[in-house]
Amino acid sequence: MIPVAWYLILSGVLFSIGLAGVLIRRNVLVIFMCVELMMNAVNISLLAFARSFKNGLNFTGDAFVIFVVTVAASEAAVGLAIIVSLSRQSDSVDADQIDLLKE
């Protein structure tokens, strides 16, 4: 059996990579993928804690992860629609060059 600490280390590394990508990158699509990576890292840590503290048939952590995945899927659909709309209206998907809301 794999210890919980390994899952938490994996989750922390994935979250750090996602955070670095959000802070460093300028492409809106890459920033969006890094946010998704951060949410998956949180899901890994939620499942690790749910599995380690499970007493009997308690599926609270599992249900919460399914809820987060559902919200992430809807967020992905809306986010990709916004990115496609931005790419059609401007020349670039560079986060520094998007100024559509300044008018």
Can you lay out the helices and strands and say which pair or pack?
Elements: H1 4-24, H2 28-52, H3 60-89
Distance between the termini: 57 Å
Strand content range: under 5%
Strand and helix order: HHH
Number of strands: 0
Structural category is mainly alpha
CATH class division: Mainly Alpha
**Taking all residues together, what is the mean pLDDT?**
85
So what's the overall shape?
elongated
Please, how many domains? 1
Helix run count: 3
Stated plainly, the CATH topology is called Helix Hairpins
Features:
elongated; mainly alpha; 74% helix; 103 residues; 3 helices
Descriptive account of the structure:
With 103 residues, this protein is an all-alpha fold. The protein has a single domain, classed as Helix Hairpins, CATH 1.10.287.3510. It has helices spanning 4-24, 28-52, 60-89. Helix 2 (28-52) packs antiparallel against helix 3 (60-89).
